[in-house]
Amino acid sequence: MKFGVVVFPGSNCDDDTVFALQHNLGQEVIKLWHKDHDLQGCDFVILPGGFSYGDYLRSGAISRFSPIMNEVIQHAKRGGYVMGICNGFQIVCEAHLLPGVLLRNIEQKFICRNIHLKAQTNQSLLTAGLDQERAYRVPIAHAEGRYFTDADTLKKLNDQEQVLFRYCDAQGNVSEAANPNGSLENIAGICNESRNVFGLMPHPERAADEALGNTDGKLILEQVLNVLV
Amino acid sequence: MAPTEVTDGNVLPTVETARKLGVLPEEFEKIKEILGRDPNFTELSIFSVMWSEHCSYKNSIVWLKTLPRDSDRMLAKAGEENAGLVDIGDGLACSFKIESHNHPSALEPYQGAATGVGGINRDIFTMGARPIAQLNSLRFGNPNLPKTKWLVKGVVKGIGDYGNAFGIPTVGGEVFFDECYNTNPLVNAFSAGIVEVDKVAKATSYGVGNPVFIVGSATGKDGIHGATFASEDISDKSNEKLPAVQVGDPFMEKLLLEATLEIIATGHVIGIQDMGAAGIICSTSEMSAKGEHGMIIDLDKVPTRQANMHGWEILLSESQERMLVVVEKGKEDIINAIFDKWDLHCAQIGEVVAPGPHDTGRLHFYQHGQLIADVPAHDLVLGGGAPQYHREYREPAYYQQFKQFDSNQVPDVAADELTAVAKHLLSHPNIASKKWVYEQYDSMVGTANRSTNRPSDAALVRIRDAKHPNYKKGIAMTVDCNSRYVNADPFVGAQIAVSEAARNLTCTGAEPLAVTNNLNFGNPYVPEVYWQFVQAVKGMGAACLKFATPVTGGNVSFYNQSSDDGPVFPTPTIGMIGLVENPEHQMTLDFKAEGDLIYLVGPPQNDIASSEYLYSYRGVKQSPAPAFNLDEEYTLHQSIKQLIAQGVIASAHDVSDGGLFVALAESAMPRGLGFSISTDDNFRTDAYLFGEAQSRVLVSVKPEQQGTFQQLLGAELKTEHALLGTVTAEGFVVNGQTVLSTADAKDLYDNSLGRLMA
Q1: What domains lie within chain B, and their CATH numbers?
Q2: Phi and psi angles of residue B281, each rounded to the nearest 5 degrees, phi first
Q3: Is B445 close to A211, i.e. CB distance below 8 A?
Q4: ipTM for the whole complex
Q5: Is residue B390 flagged as an active site residue?
Q6: Considering the entire predicted model, what is its pTM?
Q7: Does residue B111 have a known ligand-binding role?
Q8: CB-based contact (8 Å) between B408 and chain A?
Q9: Is B101 known to be catalytic?
């Protein structure tokens, strides 16, 4: 199995994601340059965090037009795995691989801190083996992470178990107080209908190394391997 | 193009014009002497910025030279390169520096702070080092004033937006409020990077015929005379200088970072320097002077943002995110291809020329085919022809007055008053958590911050890249300065600033290595202000010598003074880095478990001088610096190192602002624990709990380690220590009395600053 991490101009979590996959999870991983037209045989494509093209326009609005994105979209349509983390989540939404948008945080400020997540379903590659009673501690770092969509789409997301993660407190309660950015129904991560495209605002790659004192993110990333291997 | 007649089309300026540009009459005479003729307006502008305080350090350099600048680990000494360079072993070096952006931030806090972050990071990566972490040191006025809130919000957002997008974590810093900063906030930004020793790039230029490139943003009219502006007092006319504030583009900076490191890796770069203060003229002159060659530059080739810019505007523009690069002739295509890859605009604007018979290199600037300026590079720069002054200084009257302070005139704190004092201190913006600030900074990008989940007195960052995936060593870093102490006694206060930085590193398990300083003072032409500067430099030098932490460079910011409020507190911010050889020796500040024993290491003192308690709770503004002895401080650090190395303590936290009580609270709160301690009847209760006497560290010890701990500290190290009490499950208890519940304390500590800024 081969991972590909796309590098857009302004991506800044590309190295972190590569490092986590390669050194913490022991996987084969390559970087994919945004100007390229070839996924080089990658099975699982990750769009990393950062500020692609500076995010001066709506986050992700320019990156979706990068040449590599044509390949990523085709890959997803063929059923290939694609995951967007943070800025990557914003990009996959802009590219219409996932429904909804990520608005400015409700307090209009960038927020970087450890938050807690609760897996909502085992009907997805990313959450299949996670403990649904456990609060996973993973960092967030974003100014535009407030997930929003229309009522019909929201109903569909809930009915079809497309909501993968919700923000919760350390005890696992999904509450308003535990919602760091004002996301609709505390949504932190979702997948598409065919369950091969994932998007999440928190950064599991930042919690994947014992040297940093938190490996909850590694537990999430490892889910991918359980099925693929 | 052969040099012809030099003219920029303007009438020759007079001494009056020179004065308006900040050039003194005697300096004007010296310029004429250097050129052998009258300067034209362009040339006078060149000298005015290059000889401004900001670029030339003319009023500070004679004292800066007295600071210790060398150790076995120094690869570049102060002033030699864009930033200091320290050998950390294994072929790696740490490049680090601090720089101020005070004056721009006073007028336009968002852009002022943002471009400060951009500038300091360029200083690091222009040496070929990839930045790994940033810190910042901020000072603001009374936090209840609407203007202060506007400044705080703007500065914090500016630092966050720039640093977050640039993608280097902001891992620590300090924020301090006092009315003396009402008009002049201080914004000091620090960055550190890692470079392979044999890949270090130089800020130099040589090799006749080598092309000179400008890369990055186009040159606009922003920031013209910014360097001169930073060398004046802030006045009500300062707002008219708004065009002197630059605008930042972190996306461009990120592209420049990646492209710069790639071109340096080719080995074809002769020299490279970022363009910060004084723009193209600063980079061309400093690089040429260093490499002892000249340059011919065609200003028509400089990409500009607007048409019809004057030559002097192009030369002095401080448009951000630009680099000047001298490349080996014949390798232009290799360099161009890299800039193309990153979609960066790169233009050849000139070439290196040989030095003349009477100089080490001249700069010839052409525009529209006309030679508009012809100046010798050496005479423009610090260490070359730039002036150096010995300024007059005089002890201010207040210094002796502060020493008259008698603590017997202040009532000791009564038992029923403890809760009120505790609440006051824990919610005070100088002591309360700066969470509201630092959560707006990305502190975790780069997956290198080892302190996120293991809090310690200094931030600890691992070195992690493709070549060194399992590298063990870490760099600890901190910025410190209690300017209230420095104001009370600049000599002692500056010693304390260095000591606190070293103490923070020591309590993190690091060996202190080196210092960068940011000397923020008032107007150097005021003898009492200059006395503060001289005393602070002397104190800093003595302490840096003691801790064997040479000063590798930094920044001087004078004129932090307003016509209404006078000078700010003298604020010599110390940025210090340390090395953690073994990550298992990282020490943390939080109490670990109920039942652990709490000790104070270092002597208690009957001292409340300059404490936050005395200053803001008792309202006594005039007192000397807290009790301090440099030798005792040094000895304490060696003892703490032993305790950590031998694994006999569970936590270490230095006693600083707010005294012992605040240190106890800060150690208890991270894990939601409490403490129960007793005070000592030989001391005033307020001095014991809230005094800020230096050279003390709070540690916790597992009960089973108590014997080893006491044997080591008492019998072997002979270090004074006292058992204070124990870690408890909940509540802050002093002499059997519950002062606060942990939850109440945590709410005050965590949320007070946010409520104030709301």
Answers
A1: 1-69+202-387 (3.90.650.10), 71-200+442-586 (3.30.1330.10), 588-758 (3.90.650.10)
A2: -65, -35
A3: no
A4: 0.97
A5: no
A6: 0.95
A7: no
A8: no
A9: yes
